[in-house]
Design brief:
Two copies of one chain form a homodimer. By secondary structure, chain A is an alpha+beta fold. Chain A is built from ten helices and seven strands. In chain A, the strands form two sheets. In chain A, strands 5-4-3-6-7 form a five-stranded mixed β-sheet. Chain A is globular and about 55 Å long. The two termini of chain A are about 35 Å apart. In chain A, about 40% of the residues are buried. Chains A and B meet through helix 1, helix 2 and helix 6 of A and helix 1, helix 2 and helix 6 of B. Chain B binds a DNA duplex (20 and 20 nucleotides) through helix 3 and helix 4.
DNA sequence: CCGGATCCGGGTTGATACTG
DNA sequence: CAGTATCAACCCGGATCCGG
């Protein structure tokens, strides 16, 4: 392991986390939970498979990741964060918060994954009518499908197609983030290409009332 | 600039901050404030001068650092964080907090600088007797000299020799951190080689009552 | 399909020397 | 003081291959 050799806790943290891809692997395990090697590759478009294998070994040696040979019917290796690894959530959140303004720039070639919405959803959204029955909004952006659920004061995100949705939003990732962060109204977003089917109220239930400043 | 090309705020942040040395340069500018190229080099032992020049250019292009040609009598270039750069403090603090447990491991070859104590001081120490007149403790560790001042409920660190000190602590960086974090008592530290001259109460005024868990 | 290992070309890093 | 220039070594990304 290459080290900065500085007796400073920031440098020590970066000795372990500072290499390329390492913190993004942690992001994946925070957003997806325990998952397979192949799921990690899907969530890290652009990574070379040898680098993913290397990093997972290093993270395991550092006590951040543990691997588990899942029994049948899964019959595969699962990678999960240890407690020490889960303690990196504040680091990932701080980075994501700081990086949020960079999301407004146009980025044509960027890849997108639905579960990356986990962090923005937790930062921007809230259940504004906690006493009403739960509602779900299906999100379709860049061929990814996810579901935002509002229930009893909590807003959660999960990936995959819901069995039932009160509303379906189809849009680009950029427009979606503008709307979720409250910087663009639904009406304006619709003019720019977002489509909303079903209950508009189900979407408005979770949106911020004013643009969220991060 | 190499990019992950992922439409995710964490990846966007790491596009800008993820290269080797970049976040340590930010740490330096947070801890030292505006400073000269040479001061940065002193605070970043191990960095190659061409890398420092490269990173400063990149940070300037990203709007994180700005350079200012200071007028006489300074007559030199000063580097300082922009507002956007100062907004990285939560990132540095989160990394430093997570990295703190790594400081207990023995690290024989590590370099140390007095101003790196800024973060631990703000995390661990508090003025336990805010109504008493201010006191200062001179810290001598690994040929670096710094001063911890307790005044009116606030604890601050500065580097350099104080004009007057109520106490003088001479020790190794490791022992010092153990004491400041409350994991080792003064008595035990003294047995292990720490020396305390002057007012023991001046040191105890700022120490935590119990080991700080981070 | 899963979880990698291996090989290779090119880019990045780090040490040293040097300069206006 | 604030950097450039140079160069060897290393790391990264892409492609390919391989044992379960």
């Amino acid at each position: 392991m290459r080290s900065y050799r500085q007796y400073c806790s920031v440098a020590k943290a970066l000795d372990v986390l500072g290499e390329r891809w390492t913190l993004l692997i942690v992001r994946e395990l925070l957003a997806q939970g325990a998952c397979r090697y192949t799921d990690l590759r899907r969530g890290l478009p652009g990574i070379a498979t040898n680098l993913l294998a290397d990093r997972l070994r290093e993270l395991e040696a550092a006590g951040i990741v543990e691997r588990e040979d899942a029994p049948p019917p899964v019959a595969t290796t699962l990678f999960r964060l240890t407690e020490r690894g889960a303690a990196l959530e504040p680091v990932i959140r701080a980075l994501g918060r700081w990086g949020t303004p960079l999301m407004r720039a146009d980025a044509p070639g960027d890849r997108f994954r639905g579960h990356w919405l986990t962090l923005p959803v937790s930062m921007f959204l809230a259940d504004r009518t906690p006493h009403e029955p739960s509602t779900t909004v299906e999100i379709r952006a860049a061929d990814e499908i996810a579901v935002i659920e509002a229930a009893a004061g909590a807003v959660t995100l999960r990936t995959g197609v819901p069995s039932r949705a009160d509303a379906v939003v189809t849009t680009s990732p950029q427009l979606l983030l503008s709307v979720l962060s409250g910087h663009m109204g639904i009406q304006e977003a619709t003019r720019r290409g977002l489509t909303l089917q079903g209950s508009r109220a189900a979407l408005e239930r979770v949106l911020p009332e004013a643009p969220v400043t991060v």
